[in-house]
Amino acid sequence: MPSVNFHAADGSVETIEVAVGDSVMRGARDNMVDGIEADCGGVCACATCHIYVAPEWVERVGPAGADESEMLDCANDPRPNSRLSCQIAMTAELEGLTVFLPESQR
After folding, report:
1. Cβ distance 97 to 61 under 8 Å?
2. Which CATH number is 3-100's, of 3.10.20.30, 3.90.226.10, 3.40.50.10860, 3.30.360.10?
3. What pLDDT was estimated at residue 12?
4. Segments making up each domain of the chain, as ranges
5. pLDDT attached to residue 92
């Protein structure tokens, strides 16, 4: 399974495996990654799975869709590299994906 590196605001790093086809958010929840709340369960309705994609990964991950962009307006401290982890489907090409967690989701 491909891996994702989650960098927390405190500087700690947690690397997890995410099954191809699952969302990055589902992998984070299944592995109990602190900082991913995912209140809506992954339906792009809450912005509590907000992450910052590392600059070198932004192009490979791709842009947010219209609904996701709208939800990101509600996220805590959105940035140009913000994404909702529920909207990123894991692929083999995303092996080693690096993301950063905001200080808080609210």
Report:
1. yes
2. 3.10.20.30
3. 98
4. 3-100
5. 98
Distance from C-alpha of 75 to C-alpha of 41, rounded to nearest angstrom: 16
Residue 50's DSSP bridge partners are 84
Side chain identity at residue 89, one-letter code? A
Q: From the first residue on, what is the mean pLDDT of each consecutive set of 10 residues in the chain (106 residues)?
A: 98 98 98 97 97 99 97 96 99 99 94
Q: Phi and psi of 102, rounded to 5°?
A: -70, 165
pLDDT at 106: 84
What is the strand order of the sheet 97-100 is part of? 13-17, 3-7, 97-100, 50-53, 82-84
